User: Fold these one by one.
Assistant:
Number 1:
Amino acid sequence: MILDWLKNRKDKNENAPTLFDANATLRVIGDRASGKTAYMASLAYWPNADSNSPVQDISPVNDDAQELINQARNILEQGLELPPTDLNASAEDVKDYLLSIAVKNQMSLTSAKAALFPKILKLTIGCKDYAGEFFADLVHKSKDAKLQSYLEDCREATGLMFLVDGTAPRKDMDYARGLDKFLGALDAVDGGGKMKRIALVVTKCEIEQLWVNRHDPRKIAEARFPQTCHKLAGWGSLGSGTVEYFTTSAFGVLGREFPQPNSKKLTRDRQGTTSVIKDPKRWRPFGLVAPIYWLCTGDRYRELERG
Ligand SMILES: Nc1nc2c(ncn2[C@@H]2O[C@H](COP(=O)(O)OP(=O)(O)O)[C@@H](O)[C@H]2O)c(=O)[nH]1
Ligand SMILES: [Mg+2]
């Protein structure tokens, strides 16, 4: 009875508390160098875990994800840069990282909901390392077979993490144009995809100008990526699903009182920044699980946005 009631509410109003969707299929997408691999690697490795964090455990589900942990250990932890994806990789060589995350549930849920929720939620997230220039290809090579199979994979998703490099506001127009094609492609089949939620995730937020506003992700997103946000809002207003905004850093900061970025800049241009970790011993990422939790449950979890 109550299950039906909750399910009905879920169908009618996305903003009302929703049931945890154990079958959520999440995908991470983003432009080249937006930080996808660093995000997945830091998540998989989960360095210097805080014992008070609601995150109980993160484990690799497949061999590619295990390899990612090794890369985090052997490359990131040495203060080196992860290798970029081989643009000529064949479709079979595309890496597919799959991780499972166990999170303690929120205590503040309404009692009806708490009774239905398990105490520990198991969330699964996947990221396929698309071997191409995702947004440029969407605009210019829409018939490409590799791109089509990638889109097919995204179409299966119920939730999507869309990573944007916080240091690349000049790419706003490119992102918006690509997103337009992307959302169009998702909707083109069967009168609409399964997509229910899209999280716009601003990466590299340990950098000072971003860090100070990290608790207002929407403000950062709208100031730096107005066209992109406009496109997403348009998608949301069509009733296709909901959009939320998040800030993350794969590397995090050093110190509490006067935090400094725990990253060393290698290059910075219109395309964004490339960096490595400054002090691997004190490496603690920021905000990685918060968007995943929201994508699976429809609720924000403030505890996961602390830092
Ligand atoms: N400063 C900073 N740099 C990052 C962060 N995440 C990724 N990067 C850097 O951004 C560049 C591209 O990251 P990568 O994960 O390879 O991007 P991908 O092409 O989307 O997989 C690399 O130089 C990373 O070290 C972050 O949180 N902070
Ligand atoms: Mg990559």
Note: The two ends are 40 Å apart (CA to CA).
Number 2:
Amino acid sequence: MSVATIPLQWLIPTSISNGFLFRCPLTLKQLVKDDICSTYFRQLLKVVEIDYNIRDFHLELQQQSSLDLYIYYKDSKEKQGPHRTTVCISCDKTTELFSITLISEQQHTRAWFDGRNRPKLILTPIRHLHRLSEMTDKEFSSFWFDAVTLADREFGDEIWSSMIVNHGVYRTHEHLHLKINFDKRVWQKAVQNWSEERKDKIQEMQQLLEQKDIYEKCFGSKKTNKYGGKI
Ligand SMILES: [Zn+2]
Ligand SMILES: [Zn+2]
């Protein structure tokens, strides 16, 4: 495997109010297709985690014709880290939600509906990992390939609005999650075309989530954070 050379400009962040912004002239899909996505993202994470020594951060991808990668880290003191739960919903196959929220399983990843039924898809590594940088090369390149494939398969060409991976205290779940967010209207339009089987599944998921014990087991207790907002 050849090691791609990543332009230095892609790896020099601009300062923004809550962190950094990296800009890349290619889209995520182009990066994956050209087989340079994992090399680029690995080097970018090295800049953040090693050069700047930032371990707690919110990574957010947004794209129009090119890709913007935001690293938010300056409000880490306000974050409380993952909720305490008795099970890992991304690992424990015995939880009621596991099979209902699971969309597909790949060699290194699982794709899910959001366990709280928000307009997003979730991608997790099969292994119980906490950070992107803990992945092996194979896991890491599969992860981004699978993210693009999943979003395309479910919603068509690059229509996602953002992709988010939280690290350290920015996490709400221990197990690493990639959240692929969609505009509400895009989501609702797609939902109309879902099979009856899938619609039933979502309904079943909603019913399960109304049971307090199941909700708390999977997501922790529904209390408010110190600012009085819902966690
Ligand atoms: Zn896990
Ligand atoms: Zn853990």
Note: The chain has a mean pLDDT of 90.
